[in-house]
Specification:
By secondary structure, the protein is an alpha+beta fold. The chain folds into two domains: 181 residues, BirA Bifunctional Protein, domain 2, CATH 3.30.930.10; 41 residues, SH3 type barrels (Roll), CATH 2.30.30. Helices cover 28% and strands 27% of the residues. It contains six helices and eleven strands. The strands form two sheets. The protein has a six-stranded antiparallel β-sheet with strand order 1-2-6-5-4-3, sandwiched between helices. Strands 10-9-8-7-11 form a five-stranded antiparallel β-sheet, with no helix packed on it. The longest helix is centred in the last third of the chain and has 22 residues. The model has no long low-confidence stretch (mean pLDDT 91).
Length: 238
């Protein structure tokens, strides 16, 4: 537990060489949080910022699939603490939506050489009390929302971490015991806009198509006018 840190993911990377067991790092406040592709993660005081660091088995692809594990754990945690009236869905590749707005994001980082992953860092940010202003996100991105704004509930960072750590441990046990298949099924059961037309933007192209499924490697599968496309990495827009 830290009062303040630049980024819980950065702190995890600094601590990685000395850690021998899975460890959660939580900060009351982040001063330089970051999201995917180097984006700034705006985290007003009272929001949740934490990182899990551990040494996973398997190759980098297996490590990357933990983004789906973390998304399921986040959805379980929000469902438990917010109750049945909170409508929760999962947006590929690693966002959690509350009542249709983005309430949480996940950032995976890893280190290693070749096929070996020395450690995996799973950063989690949740808008517990406040969401970034609409102008702070890129055009076309999901409207940010907060738990407080959508439900009226004030969730403590400590309670959220306790519930999230327990939920992640359950889903991680599923993953390590049975592989990605049950994780994939559970994720698809909560997927936002499944069966609907969405837009995926990679670094080189924009692809519009019907969201059919995700592959066994976690890739987004779209049915497009030019055929079926498997997209391993992209930003998705509704």
């Amino acid at each position: 537990m830290l009062a303040e840190v630049d980024s819980t993911n950065s702190e995890a990377a600094r601590l990685a060489p000395g850690l021998t067991q899975p460890t959660w790092i939580m900060a009351r406040r982040q001063t330089a949080g970051r999201g995917r592709r180097g984006r700034v993660w705006i985290a007003p005081e009272g929001n949740f910022a934490a990182t899990l660091i551990f040494r996973p088995s398997g190759d980098p692809l297996q490590a990357a699939l933990r983004s789906f594990v973390a998304a399921l754990a986040l959805a379980d945690t929000l469902g438990l603490l917010c109750g049945p009236h909170a409508a929760l869905t999962l947006k590929w590749p690693n966002d959690v939506l509350l009542n249709g707005g983005k309430v949480a994001g996940i950032l995976l980082e890893s280190a290693g050489q070749g096929a070996a992953v020395s450690h995996l860092i799973i950063g989690v940010g949740v808008n517990l009390v406040a969401a970034p202003p609409r102008e702070a996100v890129e055009p076309g991105a999901m409207q940010p929302v907060s738990v407080l704004g959508e439900t009226g509930l004030i969730l403590s960072q400590d309670d959220f971490l306790a519930a999230l750590a327990a939920a992640y441990a359950r889903w991680e046990a599923q993953f390590t015991t049975y592989g990605f298949a049950p994780i994939r099924t559970a994720w698809l059961n909560r997927a936002a806009r499944l069966g609907q037309v969405i837009v995926a933007r990679t670094v080189s192209e924009t692809i519009e198509g019907t969201f059919e499924t995700i592959g066994g490697d976690g890739a987004l599968i779209l049915k497009t006018g030019a055929g079926r496309r498997a997209i391993p990495a992209a930003d998705v827009f509704f």
